[in-house]
Amino acid sequence: MPDKYLLASDLGSGGCKTVILNNQGRIISSASTEYPTYYPHPSWVEQNPDDWYQALAQTTRRAISEAGISSTEIAMVGLVGVTHNTVLLDSNDRPLRNCILTFDQRSEVQCRQILARWGDEVLNQTRNGVSPLWSWPQLLWLKQNEPDTWQATRRLLFQKDYVRHRLAPAYVTDTVDAAGTLLFNPVTETWVEAFIDDVGVSPAMLPQVVGPMEVVSEISRPAARDTGLAPGTPVIAGTTDTVAEVFGSGLLQPGQGLVKLASVGRLAVIANGPVHHPNILNYRHVLDGLWYPGSGTKAAATTPRWLRDNLWRGQRPADAPTFAQMDEAAAGIQPGSEGLLFQPHLLGEWAPYWDEHLRANFIGATMRHTRAHFTRAALEGVAFSLRDAIEGLARIGLQYQEYRLIGGGAKSGLWAQIVSDVLGQELLLPRQQDAAYGAALITAVAAGLLDISPASIREVIQLEARLQPDPDHHAIYNELFEIYQAAERKLADIAHRLSAFEQNADR
Fold this sequence. Notes:
By secondary structure, the protein is α+β, with helices and mostly antiparallel strands. It has two domains: about 5-245, Nucleotidyltransferase, domain 5, CATH 3.30.420.40; about 250-430 and about 470-505, ATPase, nucleotide binding domain (Nucleotidyltransferase, domain 5). The chain has 17 helices and 23 strands. The protein has helices at about 50-65, 110-120, 120-125, 135-145, 145-150, 160-165, 175-180, 195-200, 220-225, 240-250, 300-310, 325-330, 370-395, 415-425, 435-445, 455-460, 470-505; strands at about 5-10, 15-20, 25-35, 45, 75-80, 85-90, 100, 155-160, 170-175, 185, 190, 210, 215-220, 235, 240, 255-260, 265-270, 295, 340-345, 360-365, 400-405, 425-430, 465. The strands form nine sheets. It has a five-stranded mixed β-sheet, sandwiched between helices. The longest helix is centred in the C-terminal third of the chain and has 36 residues, at about 470-505. The termini are far apart. The mean pLDDT is about 95.
């Protein structure tokens, strides 16, 4: 077969990564860059959609150059992105404001309004509960608080769909991203008319919903000038970053479980159907008949980044250490951080508490504790948070039979081992584990270079390592985890009072 190449990009919560895959399923080049996140008020989290497109254009040019190929040799393009991130467009398809991100907490009042009006009907129709991470309450907040912006809105697109529209014009989304709005029934694959009417969205504002692997458009000439891609290159609908990671990590049968150490700590178990519970996130797999119900903790890899920027960095940004250097310091501290404990609720918390008013805490600090102690305690605290959420999943019958660890945080050997020790479980680390690789495999299936069957997919997915828990360390962490849970119970009221104080002070 003549050489064919595929280009795929992951528009993540903190940056964009673009890869080029050859027809043997091997990545031959990659490029990544970050984009800024804005926090204009307490509990608000936003990004500029144009930053996403510029990041895609930049990484695409770099990936093509590094691959040493002509853009005309790229047979197809596919994008994935973070779900729940809704872009409001004016009549000229320009974003009307920064995008409210899935981490944003401002729409709590709107969540209560939705539940008061619709109750269990939301769960029955969408297979998901109501919380500020979904698009519906975010849109309702915008309608009630920014009426001029709302009146000027002509279309809604989601993160990867907006960027893809800039590349290859099409008002389209996929079935998984549509479910992230809480306005879509993922079983019937239709918009829920009553919910759309409730928020005041007309059908003309909504994108057409298609399968993730469907070709929807071609690279336009303006986008070709921006990115270096060839005009006319076909582009598929794409999907969300998490389902791309699920697919690309080899999670292809019920019981296989995901532990993701990215900006968020995403957890999921492959199942034959959704789990009917308001605190379970239910999304469909790209393989027919499968779902990946689960939950997540809110500040995973965000935590060491926050520590780097606020505890380790000197007067100049260039003085900041690498994460590897921070790991080296933390590795010199014994498990348990000599009695220093961290609750990683820097952005509130999702599972198992679903409480946006929880706050992060270092507990037990003494004069003997150094930056290295604080760093190890932070890594351990995120692992405790993951265990807390996993145990919450088990209580409602969602059991892990196999653990696959992925995400940027999984590249830290220290952190990966801490997670294994805290969970007391073997962890499988796929060699290629990020969403960009999953997006490339999905694009390869769409292009006919890879069969959709699990057997074919397993042939191109390899494991990098199997981590075994240290029994002695697991015993230490069992004792400390009990203290962690006690602290959660005892400090929740204090967190709520501090959250109220913060909100009042901001006014």
